[in-house]
Amino acid sequence: LLKALEEPPASALLVLIAGDVEELLPTVRSRCQELALRPLGRAELAAAIEADGVEPGRAAEVAVAAEGRYGLARQLLQDPSLAVLRETTMADIERLLFAGRNERFDYAAALARRWSRERESVLATLDAWRDWWRAELHRATAGSNGTGDPREASYELTPRGIVRALRAVQ
Fold first, then answer.
1. Distance between CA atoms of 27 and 139, rounded to whole angstroms?
2. Please, how many CA atoms are within 13 Å of residue 91, restricted to the half-sphere of its CB?
3. What is the pTM of this model?
4. 144/56 Cα distance (integer angstroms)
């Protein structure tokens, strides 16, 4: 890999995709140019999904759920169980946000038990958690008061706390 990165063929364009740049070896990172890929806007993503033949109302709905990620939008369209899993996870998040430590640890233990036999489902669940915390971070830094839940006054969602939770999920 290092040889190919150091001396790529003139006619080749090599693209290395990584979910976490920090996971790459420094010798690999030093030979690459990093390009940050940003999510699409909702309207732009909905238009792209419509161009694939999806009816406009469904395209808009999936664009919101996918939060600008075309790949996730395609997955949600192809696998309805993924959308159900994300909805269930969102309900779990709302419940666990105000739950006690024991209930949260029980939830984490249940995810851990599922890991060996349902790896993709657990990863999708963690992705939904990460997406929720990112959305909360966006709301917190944009001046919005979090989820709008009336119980929220007893649970302050500060940017620092949200980042800590996001790192824990990651």
1. 37
2. 5
3. 0.63
4. 29
What b/e string do you get for 160-170 counting C-beta neighbours within 10 Å, with b at 16 or more? eebeebbeeee
pLDDT in tens, the chain (170 residues): 888 888 888 998 899 888 778 889 999 999 998 888 888 999 999 999 999 999 999 999 899 888 888 998 999 999 988 889 988 999 999 899 889 999 999 999 999 999 999 998 999 899 899 988 988 888 888 865 544 444 444 456 888 889 998 888 88
CA distances from 138 to 15, 39, 91, 135 (A): 29, 14, 20, 5
List the helix and strand counts (H, then E) for the chain: 9, 0
59-63 long-range contacts (CB < 8 A, ≥24 apart) are: none
Pair of tokens at residue 33: 């140019």
Nearest to 3, CA basis, from 22, 31, 33, 24? 31
DSSP conformation class of 70: H
Residues in the chain: 170
DSSP 74-92: HHHHH-HHHHHHHHHHHHH
